[in-house]
UniProtKB/TrEMBL annotation:
Top-level taxonomic group: Bacteria
Transmembrane segments: 452-473
Protein name according to UniProt: DUF4178 domain-containing protein
Record organism: Melaminivora suipulveris
Pfam families reported in the protein's UniProt record: DUF4178
Length: 502
C-alpha cells in the first residue's frame, strides 16, 4: 500500500530565527516558518527571507497541516498530506485553500482543497487556451472551455491575507487581484486567478470530507474559546462567538448585528435592529438530517417583492443556517408552502436569463417566480457578513418531475445557485425533537395534501363550494394592498455570496 510519507525532504534553518523549515514537495518554492512567521523562498539549497506573513485567522474547518487522506478513485486513489494553507479576503469574508501533496512523491503533482460556500472543492492545476482579460468575463456570461459550456459565476477582487506551511506560489500579501469563477451544469468548477502572470487556472468538483478518509483532523475539544468572547460595542453585554469562521453575529441582548471581518480584536462595527423575531427553532438546537447532526447557528427573516409588482406587495420567509463539522453548512428554509433543506450548488445550472427553464445535474426545472429579496432581521452567526437591508435579485425554480427546487441569487460581482428538496413539516419537528410543537411547524407539506379518489362525493362537493366562496371573497378584496407570506419557497440559501472558494 502506498504511503503518504514524502520520499525526500529538504530541511534548512530559517533565515529569520534559525528554526528548521521543511519542504516535503519539490514543487514548493515558498514556506512560512512556523515559529517566527517569516516568509522564505527556496532557491536551490538556499533559503532567503522575503518578509513576514500574518498569522492565519483560525476558522471552522477541522482540517490542519499534516492531516492525511485518500483521493477518490476517480482522482487516482492516492494517499495525500496537507502541507500548506492560503487564506484570502474577498468582499464577503475570508476563505482558505489547502495545498495537498498526493502519493508521497514530490513529482506526483499538486491538489488543492478549496472552501466553497461552507463545503469543499477538490481541484488540480489546468492548462488550456489563452485566457481573456477579466473584464471580458462578466458575471452571467455563457462561454465554453474545450467545447464544454460554462457560465461565469463570480468576478471579484480578492487579496492574500495569511498563509502557513509550504506553498507552490505566493501572491503579494494584501495586494488585490481578480478571481473569476466559471461553473458548469454538471457541477464542475473552473477558477482563474489573475494574481500572477500568466493567470493560474484550477479545475475540479465538489467533495465531501467524509469521502476523503481523513486522519489527523483537528481535535475540536482543544479549541480555545476565550479569544472569541467580547463585549457588544452597542450595549456592552457579553457576546460569545461559537464558530471561528463567523464573519458576523448578533448580540443576544440588544440584537445588534456585529461585523467580525476585522477580527474580534479589531474595530467592531455594528448596526442596531428593531422588532426582533423569535425563531421557531431556537439557536443552538441540533437536528438530524441526511444521517448527520446539524446545529442551528444562524437565523434570518427575509422579505421579497415580485418583479414587476407596481404595488410592491411583500412576502416573507425564514432561513436557518445549519452547521456540521465535516459536511459544512446547509439552509433550512421555512416558507408558507412548506419546509425545504437546501445547499449552495458547486456547479451552475444551464440557464439563459429571461427563459423559463433551467437544467442541473440531469434534472429540468421551471421558473416559478422572480423577486427582489431583502434581509430584514438576523440572529446568530454567519460565515459571510450578513446585515439587515442586504438586497439580492432572486429567481426560484421547481423541478419538472416535482422532486426538487432550485434558486438563483445575484449580488454585485457574483451569482449563487442553490438546490434542495422539500421536507414534510412533521419530519422537521421530529428532527429537532419538537414533536410536541408539531402543529406550529405545519405548512403546505412536500407530499400530496390529499387523495381525491379516497374522498366521498359529499366531501368533494363541499370543497368545491368552499373554493367558490373563497374566490368571490378574493375578487372583492383584490384592491387591497399589504404584506403576504412567501408561497414559492423563498430564497434557497440566503445571501451566501459564494464565489468559487468561499
Amino acid at each position: 500500500m502506498a504511503s503518504s510519507a514524502p520520499q525526500r525532504v529538504y530541511r534548512a534553518p530559517c533565515p529569520g530565527c534559525g528554526a528548521p523549515v521543511e519542504f516535503k514537495s519539490a514543487q514548493s518554492t515558498y514556506a512560512v516558518c512556523p515559529y517566527c512567521q517569516s516568509t522564505v523562498v527556496r532557491s536551490g539549497e538556499v533559503l532567503q527571507r522575503v518578509g513576514r506573513m500574518a498569522e492565519v485567522f483560525d476558522d471552522h474547518s477541522p482540517l490542519q497541516l499534516g492531516a492525511s487522506g485518500r483521493l477518490p478513485e476517480a482522482e487516482g486513489g492516492q494517499r495525500f498530506t496537507l502541507i500548506g494553507r492560503l487564506q484570502y479576503q474577498g468582499p464577503q469574508g475570508r476563505w482558505a485553500e489547502w495545498i495537498a501533496l498526493p502519493g508521497g512523491d514530490a513529482e506526483d503533482g499538486r491538489v488543492t482543497l478549496s472552501e466553497d460556500n461552507g463545503s469543499y472543492v477538490l481541484t488540480r492545476p489546468a492548462t488550456g487556451r489563452e485566457l481573456p482579460p477579466p473584464e471580458r468575463l462578466p458575471v452571467g456570461l455563457a462561454t465554453s472551455v474545450a467545447g464544454k459550456p460554462f457560465s461565469v459565476a463570480a468576478n471579484l477582487q480578492a487579496q492574500l491575507v495569511a498563509a502557513e506551511g509550504e506553498l507552490p506560489q505566493l501572491a503579494p500579501l494584501g495586494q488585490p487581484f481578480t478571481v473569476v469563477e466559471l461553473r458548469s451544469a454538471d457541477g464542475e468548477v473552473l477558477s482563474i486567478d489573475y494574481g500572477s502572470a500568466p493567470p493560474q487556472v484550477t479545475r475540479g468538483r465538489a467533495i465531501a470530507l467524509q469521502d476523503l478518509a481523513l486522519q489527523g483532523l483537528r481535535d475540536e475539544s482543544v479549541r480555545e474559546e476565550a479569544a472569541r468572547q467580547f463585549d457588544c460595542p452597542n450595549c456592552g453585554a457579553p457576546v460569545a462567538v461559537q464558530l471561528d469562521s463567523s464573519k458576523s453575529c448578533t448580540c443576544p441582548s440588544c440584537h445588534s448585528v456585529i461585523d467580525l471581518t476585522a477580527g474580534v480584536g479589531g474595530e467592531l462595527r455594528h448596526a442596531e435592529q428593531r422588532n426582533p423575531i423569535s425563531p421557531l427553532i431556537p439557536l443552538g438546537s441540533v437536528g438530524q438530517f441526511e444521517g448527520a447532526s446539524w446545529q442551528v447557528v444562524g437565523f434570518q427573516h427575509r422579505m421579497g417583492v415580485e418583479a414587476g409588482d407596481e404595488e410592491e406587495e411583500s412576502f416573507g420567509w425564514e432561513e436557518y443556517l445549519l452547521y456540521n463539522r465535516e459536511r459544512g453548512f446547509v439552509f433550512l428554509v421555512d416558507a408558507s408552502d412548506g419546509w425545504s433543506l437546501v445547499r449552495p450548488a458547486s456547479g451552475a445550472p444551464s440557464y439563459k436569463d429571461g427563459t423559463p427553464l433551467a437544467q442541473y445535474l440531469g434534472r429540468s426545472y421551471r421558473l416559478t417566480s422572480r423577486y427582489r429579496a431583502e434581509t430584514g432581521f438576523v440572529a446568530g452567526e454567519f460565515y459571510w457578513p450578513v446585515h439587515s437591508g442586504q438586497v439580492t435579485s432572486n429567481a426560484d425554480f421547481a423541478a419538472v418531475d416535482g422532486k426538487g427546487i432550485l434558486s438563483r441569487e445575484q449580488a454585485p460581482g457574483e451569482v449563487t445557485w442553490s438546490y434542495g428538496q422539500r421536507l414534510d413539516s412533521a419530519a422537521v419537528a421530529s428532527a429537532f425533537k419538537l414533536d410536541a410543537k408539531a402543529g406550529l411547524f405545519r405548512r403546505q407539506d412536500a407530499g400530496p395534501v390529499g387523495n381525491v379518489a379516497s374522498m366521498g362525493c359529499g366531501t368533494v362537493v363541499m370543497l368545491f363550494i368552499v373554493l367558490v366562496i373563497l374566490l368571490i371573497l378574493m375578487s372583492n378584496c383584490s384592491g387591497d394592498s399589504g404584506g403576504s407570506y412567501r408561497s414559492s419557497g423563498g430564497s434557497m440559501g440566503g445571501y451566501t455570496s459564494g464565489g468559487g472558494h468561499k
